[in-house]
Amino acid sequence: MHPLDNVIWKALTTVDAHFAESQGSARRFTPEVTALGAFSGSAEQGFAALAELLPANGVVALFLAEPAEAPAGLEVVRAIPLLQMLHDDRRLDLPPQNSIALAEADVPEMMALAALTQPGPFGKRTRELGTYLGIRRQARLVAMAGERLRLPGYTEVSAVCTHPEHTGNGYAAALIAALVGNIQGRGESAMLHTAEDNQRAIALYERLGFKKRTRLHLLVVRKKGEASRAENPLQR
Questions:
Q1: Which domain holds residue 209?
Q2: Alpha-carbon torsion 91, 101, 97, 144, what sign?
Q3: Which of 20, 65, 91, 136 is the most exposed place for a label (fewest CB within 10 A)?
Q4: What whole-number distance in Å separates Cα of residue 152 and Cα of residue 179?
Protein backbone atom coordinates (compact mmCIF):
# COMPACT_ATOMS: atom_id res chain seq x y z
CA MET A 1 0.00 0.00 0.00
CA HIS A 2 1.24 3.47 -0.87
CA PRO A 3 1.64 5.65 2.27
CA LEU A 4 -0.82 8.19 0.83
CA ASP A 5 -3.58 5.58 0.39
CA ASN A 6 -4.58 5.86 4.07
CA VAL A 7 -2.88 9.17 4.65
CA ILE A 8 -4.53 10.26 7.91
CA TRP A 9 -3.79 6.89 9.53
CA LYS A 10 -0.20 7.01 8.32
CA ALA A 11 0.25 10.52 9.77
CA LEU A 12 -1.31 9.53 13.09
CA THR A 13 0.96 6.51 13.42
CA THR A 14 4.20 8.29 12.44
CA VAL A 15 5.11 11.99 12.50
CA ASP A 16 1.80 13.18 14.00
CA ALA A 17 1.43 10.30 16.49
CA HIS A 18 1.84 12.64 19.47
CA PHE A 19 -1.46 14.31 18.51
CA ALA A 20 -3.36 11.01 18.39
CA GLU A 21 -6.19 9.63 20.51
CA SER A 22 -6.57 5.89 19.99
CA GLN A 23 -9.10 3.09 20.45
CA GLY A 24 -8.52 -0.30 18.86
CA SER A 25 -8.04 0.12 15.12
CA ALA A 26 -9.17 3.78 15.15
CA ARG A 27 -7.28 6.99 15.77
CA ARG A 28 -8.19 10.65 15.65
CA PHE A 29 -6.39 13.92 16.24
CA THR A 30 -7.00 15.69 19.52
CA PRO A 31 -10.18 17.62 18.61
CA GLU A 32 -8.71 21.07 19.21
CA VAL A 33 -5.99 20.24 16.68
CA THR A 34 -8.28 19.04 13.89
CA ALA A 35 -11.36 16.87 13.36
CA LEU A 36 -9.52 14.34 11.18
CA GLY A 37 -9.38 10.66 12.07
CA ALA A 38 -8.84 7.26 10.47
CA PHE A 39 -8.92 3.52 10.99
CA SER A 40 -7.03 0.51 9.65
CA GLY A 41 -8.35 -2.88 8.67
CA SER A 42 -12.01 -3.58 7.97
CA ALA A 43 -14.58 -0.79 7.85
CA GLU A 44 -16.84 -2.69 10.26
CA GLN A 45 -14.15 -2.91 12.92
CA GLY A 46 -12.92 0.61 12.21
CA PHE A 47 -16.32 2.25 12.61
CA ALA A 48 -16.96 0.24 15.77
CA ALA A 49 -13.65 1.48 17.23
CA LEU A 50 -14.49 5.05 16.23
CA ALA A 51 -17.83 4.80 17.99
CA GLU A 52 -15.98 3.81 21.18
CA LEU A 53 -13.40 6.57 20.73
CA LEU A 54 -15.86 9.43 20.20
CA PRO A 55 -17.79 11.11 23.02
CA ALA A 56 -21.51 11.76 22.63
CA ASN A 57 -21.99 14.08 19.64
CA GLY A 58 -18.25 13.82 18.91
CA VAL A 59 -17.37 14.37 15.25
CA VAL A 60 -14.62 12.92 13.08
CA ALA A 61 -13.75 13.49 9.41
CA LEU A 62 -12.40 10.52 7.44
CA PHE A 63 -10.72 10.16 4.04
CA LEU A 64 -11.97 6.85 2.61
CA ALA A 65 -11.05 4.95 -0.55
CA GLU A 66 -14.72 4.15 -1.22
CA PRO A 67 -18.04 5.73 -0.21
CA ALA A 68 -19.44 4.32 3.02
CA GLU A 69 -22.53 4.61 5.15
CA ALA A 70 -22.30 5.22 8.86
CA PRO A 71 -23.28 2.19 10.96
CA ALA A 72 -25.65 2.22 13.90
CA GLY A 73 -24.62 4.75 16.54
CA LEU A 74 -23.05 7.14 14.04
CA GLU A 75 -24.73 9.63 11.72
CA VAL A 76 -23.40 11.26 8.56
CA VAL A 77 -22.75 15.00 8.79
CA ARG A 78 -21.18 15.40 5.36
CA ALA A 79 -20.07 13.18 2.48
CA ILE A 80 -18.30 14.50 -0.65
CA PRO A 81 -15.70 13.22 -3.15
CA LEU A 82 -12.15 14.53 -2.72
CA LEU A 83 -9.12 14.72 -4.93
CA GLN A 84 -5.72 13.91 -3.50
CA MET A 85 -3.04 15.81 -5.42
CA LEU A 86 0.72 15.24 -5.32
CA HIS A 87 3.29 17.85 -6.31
CA ASP A 88 5.63 17.02 -9.19
CA ASP A 89 8.60 18.50 -7.27
CA ARG A 90 9.24 21.30 -9.75
CA ARG A 91 10.85 24.41 -8.28
CA LEU A 92 8.41 27.28 -8.02
CA ASP A 93 9.57 30.84 -8.57
CA LEU A 94 6.76 33.27 -7.84
CA PRO A 95 6.94 36.95 -6.87
CA PRO A 96 7.16 37.23 -3.07
CA GLN A 97 4.18 38.67 -1.20
CA ASN A 98 5.95 39.46 2.08
CA SER A 99 4.43 36.48 3.86
CA ILE A 100 5.01 36.04 7.58
CA ALA A 101 5.12 33.01 9.86
CA LEU A 102 1.96 32.90 11.93
CA ALA A 103 2.31 32.44 15.69
CA GLU A 104 0.03 31.57 18.59
CA ALA A 105 -0.99 35.22 18.94
CA ASP A 106 -2.41 35.06 15.40
CA VAL A 107 -4.76 32.13 16.15
CA PRO A 108 -7.93 34.22 16.70
CA GLU A 109 -7.50 35.88 13.30
CA MET A 110 -6.62 32.54 11.69
CA MET A 111 -9.77 30.97 13.04
CA ALA A 112 -11.87 33.92 11.94
CA LEU A 113 -10.47 33.71 8.39
CA ALA A 114 -11.07 29.94 8.32
CA ALA A 115 -14.64 30.42 9.57
CA LEU A 116 -15.27 32.94 6.79
CA THR A 117 -13.73 30.96 3.93
CA GLN A 118 -14.28 27.34 5.07
CA PRO A 119 -11.05 25.71 3.78
CA GLY A 120 -11.73 22.61 5.90
CA PRO A 121 -11.39 21.57 9.54
CA PHE A 122 -9.46 24.22 11.46
CA GLY A 123 -9.14 24.28 15.24
CA LYS A 124 -7.53 26.27 18.00
CA ARG A 125 -4.39 24.12 17.83
CA THR A 126 -4.22 23.37 14.09
CA ARG A 127 -1.25 25.73 13.81
CA GLU A 128 0.80 23.28 15.91
CA LEU A 129 0.82 20.76 13.04
CA GLY A 130 3.45 22.64 11.03
CA THR A 131 4.45 25.95 9.49
CA TYR A 132 1.61 28.39 8.80
CA LEU A 133 2.22 31.45 6.67
CA GLY A 134 0.05 34.52 6.29
CA ILE A 135 -0.19 37.78 4.41
CA ARG A 136 -1.28 40.97 6.11
CA ARG A 137 -2.54 44.11 4.48
CA GLN A 138 -2.99 47.18 6.70
CA ALA A 139 -2.28 44.94 9.70
CA ARG A 140 -5.18 42.62 8.81
CA LEU A 141 -4.69 38.92 8.06
CA VAL A 142 -6.08 38.49 4.55
CA ALA A 143 -4.60 35.17 3.41
CA MET A 144 -2.99 32.09 4.91
CA ALA A 145 -1.89 28.53 4.20
CA GLY A 146 -0.02 25.93 6.17
CA GLU A 147 1.08 22.36 6.80
CA ARG A 148 -1.33 19.80 8.22
CA LEU A 149 -0.82 16.04 7.78
CA ARG A 150 2.80 14.95 8.04
CA LEU A 151 4.21 11.49 7.40
CA PRO A 152 7.63 10.22 6.34
CA GLY A 153 8.49 11.78 2.98
CA TYR A 154 5.32 13.86 2.62
CA THR A 155 3.67 16.98 4.03
CA GLU A 156 0.16 18.20 3.25
CA VAL A 157 -0.50 21.81 2.26
CA SER A 158 -3.77 22.86 3.85
CA ALA A 159 -5.96 25.76 5.05
CA VAL A 160 -5.34 27.70 1.82
CA CYS A 161 -7.68 30.66 2.08
CA THR A 162 -7.98 34.31 1.10
CA HIS A 163 -10.42 36.89 2.39
CA PRO A 164 -13.06 37.51 -0.33
CA GLU A 165 -12.12 41.19 -0.48
CA HIS A 166 -8.52 40.30 -1.39
CA THR A 167 -8.80 37.56 -4.01
CA GLY A 168 -7.10 37.94 -7.38
CA ASN A 169 -3.80 39.23 -5.99
CA GLY A 170 -1.84 35.98 -6.18
CA TYR A 171 -1.70 35.54 -2.41
CA ALA A 172 -2.71 31.86 -2.36
CA ALA A 173 -0.21 30.98 -5.08
CA ALA A 174 2.60 32.80 -3.29
CA LEU A 175 1.86 31.09 0.03
CA ILE A 176 1.63 27.65 -1.56
CA ALA A 177 4.91 28.22 -3.40
CA ALA A 178 6.64 29.22 -0.18
CA LEU A 179 5.32 26.16 1.64
CA VAL A 180 6.26 23.81 -1.21
CA GLY A 181 9.77 25.28 -1.16
CA ASN A 182 10.04 24.64 2.58
CA ILE A 183 8.79 21.07 2.16
CA GLN A 184 11.21 20.40 -0.68
CA GLY A 185 14.00 21.83 1.46
CA ARG A 186 13.34 19.02 3.96
CA GLY A 187 13.64 16.43 1.19
CA GLU A 188 9.88 15.77 1.21
CA SER A 189 7.08 15.98 -1.36
CA ALA A 190 4.06 18.24 -1.01
CA MET A 191 0.51 16.95 -1.37
CA LEU A 192 -2.97 18.30 -0.70
CA HIS A 193 -6.67 17.46 -0.71
CA THR A 194 -9.52 19.41 -2.24
CA ALA A 195 -13.19 18.93 -3.01
CA GLU A 196 -13.59 17.37 -6.44
CA ASP A 197 -16.00 20.12 -7.53
CA ASN A 198 -13.69 22.98 -6.50
CA GLN A 199 -12.54 23.61 -10.05
CA ARG A 200 -11.07 27.05 -9.35
CA ALA A 201 -8.79 25.68 -6.67
CA ILE A 202 -7.86 22.62 -8.75
CA ALA A 203 -6.84 24.85 -11.66
CA LEU A 204 -4.57 26.86 -9.35
CA TYR A 205 -3.00 23.74 -7.86
CA GLU A 206 -2.34 22.29 -11.31
CA ARG A 207 -0.64 25.51 -12.43
CA LEU A 208 1.63 25.17 -9.40
CA GLY A 209 2.65 21.60 -10.24
CA PHE A 210 0.14 19.46 -8.33
CA LYS A 211 -1.16 16.41 -10.18
CA LYS A 212 -4.28 14.41 -9.41
CA ARG A 213 -3.15 11.22 -7.69
CA THR A 214 -6.39 9.56 -6.62
CA ARG A 215 -10.03 10.10 -5.75
CA LEU A 216 -11.02 9.79 -2.10
CA HIS A 217 -14.26 10.26 -0.21
CA LEU A 218 -14.67 12.63 2.72
CA LEU A 219 -17.06 11.22 5.29
CA VAL A 220 -17.82 13.30 8.37
CA VAL A 221 -19.67 11.34 11.05
CA ARG A 222 -21.05 12.22 14.46
CA LYS A 223 -21.69 9.86 17.35
CA LYS A 224 -25.33 10.00 18.36
CA GLY A 225 -26.00 11.04 21.91
CA GLU A 226 -26.79 13.86 24.27
CA ALA A 227 -24.12 16.44 25.05
CA SER A 228 -24.12 20.04 26.15
CA ARG A 229 -21.87 21.01 23.25
CA ALA A 230 -21.42 19.16 19.99
CA GLU A 231 -18.03 19.12 18.32
CA ASN A 232 -17.97 21.05 15.07
CA PRO A 233 -16.00 19.39 12.23
CA LEU A 234 -15.18 22.64 10.47
CA GLN A 235 -14.57 25.25 13.14
CA ARG A 236 -13.88 25.20 16.86
A1: 85-213
A2: positive
A3: 91
A4: 17
